[in-house]
Amino acid sequence: MNQPTDILIIRHGQTAWNKLKRLQGHSDIPLNEEGRLQAVTLAEILRHEPLDAIFSSDLQRAYQTAYEIAKSHNLPVHTDKSLRERCYGICEGMLAEEIKKAYPKSYEAWYAADPDHFFPDGERKTESPRQFHYRALEAIRNVASRHCGERVAIITHFGVLETAYRAAQNIPLGTRCKMPVLNTSINRFRWRDGRLELLAWGEASHLEEARKPPVDYYKHF
């Protein structure tokens, strides 16, 4: 029997679109000033926590966050496209009210948690919640299987965290899944015997510290 893998799944720092509540998806939006400060503070909090590997979505908001943690652990960041957020097609960059006005049927399906609904395609082809769920869960499984008996960090997005939470809590697709997912919050899971277990959710005390920049903060950027 393989040893369990402990996994810290962490949402990226804040972006300008996060602040405005615009849907991001695969749109490659960088961290804003607050997000960069959150990433530096998060790295400091995790400095003394043993990590064997660091994985990240290839989108820059996740990579920029992961990079700060990797520097403090002298580890590389392994990027993985399968750890991206769900693709929302033409609705990326829009506010919820704009989606409601322009695509009312998609808006209704979105808030009804229809697992097989697709937003209209845009620059990129969209994914249904069901497709995304299995893609994200498989990405987590791949990381866990490569690091049996170790502790790893995955820096990713809201949707991937929702997938992990849903899987660990046995919440079926097609139902609303309500839980806070703050930028740079730390969420602890264990992969054991082919499934996720939730150990701790939403560690975010460091976000208060992020309001007080470290003395050498501006040396980072």
TrEMBL record:
GO terms for biological process: fructose 2,6-bisphosphate metabolic process. The active site is at 12 (tele-phosphohistidine intermediate), 85 (proton donor/acceptor). CDD domains: HP_PGM_like (cd07067). InterPro entries: 6Pfruct_kin (IPR003094), His_Pase_superF_clade-1 (IPR013078), His_PPase_superfam (IPR029033), PG/BPGM_mutase_AS (IPR001345), PGM_Phosphatase (IPR050275). GO terms for cellular component: cytoplasm. It holds the Pfam family His_Phos_1. Substrate binds at residues 11-18, 61, 85-88. This is Histidine phosphatase family protein. GO terms for molecular function: ATP binding; phosphatase activity.
